[in-house]
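Per reviewer request, we include the raw input and output of the structure prediction for the construct analysed in the revised manuscript.
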Amino acid sequence: MNILSTEQLHAIEARLCLKYNLKYEEIRNELVDHIACEIEDKMEQGEQYEEGFTLVFRKWNVRLIADKKGVYQGIPHFIVNQLNKEYRKVALQSGVLTVVFTLLLFLSTHYFQLNNLLLLNSLFFVNAIGVLIIQRSLPSLGDYRYDFLKAKSKVVLLKSSLALAGIYLFYTVWDVVNFTFGVLLIFYFVFSTFLLLRFRVYCNNRQFKIAK
């Protein structure tokens, strides 16, 4: 079996650093192993190292490229796709619990005759505090999950702010909080806070591995 030399491995790492700006060493090292194995497979099939190098990087190119602007700026596409897949798994688990909690919370507003605007304001501030907690604890992750969760938390905070502004506009015009709109906002505030915190715990308890 063809085994790449140290110089050839360094060439792979240099390409990942210079062209794709992979800044996290652990992810970069794991990716070097993946790409080296694929190049070795090409060499087993009769390709020279240089040809295998070109073919494998051509295959990985779109996946390694990161957006220069936008929410996921600087994160390679394959990392975003993998983390979004994991995020959706946690979201599915969180959704069921959030539905139950939202219904209990909404029913309690009628039972205890709580002010809907006060409740929504309180949930918004809990949401914002949850985002702050997430952002302060992110650096310990030490890989692209830091950038991913930072982006997600900013989006959540922006959407929460717009939602709260929308409910105040609704209240100003009609002097009442619409039932459906109110329930949806309660759900969103609870769900987004719960999801971010759950995904942060999920990341803490699992070592990030590049999916094959």
